[in-house]
Amino acid sequence: MNMKRLQKSMERLQMPGHDFDANELTSLLKELLKVDKRWVPDGDGYSLYIRPTVIATHPYLGLAAPTQLLLYIITSPVGPYYPTGFKPIALWASNKFLRAWPGGTGGTKLVALKPQAYAVEKGYSQVLWLFNDEVTEVGSMNVFFVMKDEKNGVETLVTPPLDRGDILPGVTRDSILQLARTRTSLRVEERFPTISELIDASKEGRLVEAFGAGTAAVVTPIEKIHFEGKDININATGKWTQKFWDDLTRIQYGHQDGPEGWSIKV
After folding, report:
1. pLDDT tens for residues 222-249?
2. Phi/psi of residue 96, each to 5°?
3. Using CB atoms within 10 A of its CB, is residue 19 exposed (0-12), middle (13-18) or buried (19+)?
4. For residue 208, what are the contacts with CB-CB under 8 A and spacing of at least 6?
5. What pTM was estimated for this model as a whole?
């Protein structure tokens, strides 16, 4: 799935060669990891970060698709994504800035930095991106909410869908959805929650928990969302957030079996 996402991003950005042989690149990656094996750190929360990258290398600038590309892979030993480790974060919700829009490039790995700096200045860890009233993503991660159905109280995992092109098709996102559907009692809904819905659910005691998910952070609990001068306080760390963190990290470190095809031995 990682290779498919790279191919999709290249195609969206008009990069030739987006139909590269994914199996061949995976084979090359295995050889690279053998060379870099001494850089793999020990300990839970530490790993060798792998980042496939594509840049244009043609010798001119212009408003046209590139004719020459360089595809390469960066590896780097990394520790916990947040300095606080697996601890809840507070978010600043913004409808002043837009991360992406329907039909744009939100489904590719392109991010905005200025709003993030603005959130940090105000004492928050990340931006919760809004599109009008709709909640889309948190920072450069996908976002999930567990809410109780207002009619029957069923706990439901809600995350924005991919169909309009402004949400990143994260591999961790897909992994969580697979685990939720096959290994939990949660009902799963791929739809856009709204900030108004979250405010109402919080007031009514139906907002159970929330978390962000991405490659580097894996799963990050959310304890508060600030919006228009008021805080939405959320229970953190919730049992589902903890479960997804535990299951994903155990699978990543080989302590627990994941679904078929999730892990590749080098």
Report:
1. 999 999 999 999 998 999 999 999 999 9
2. -80, -40
3. exposed
4. 146, 147, 148, 155, 235, 238, 240
5. 0.82
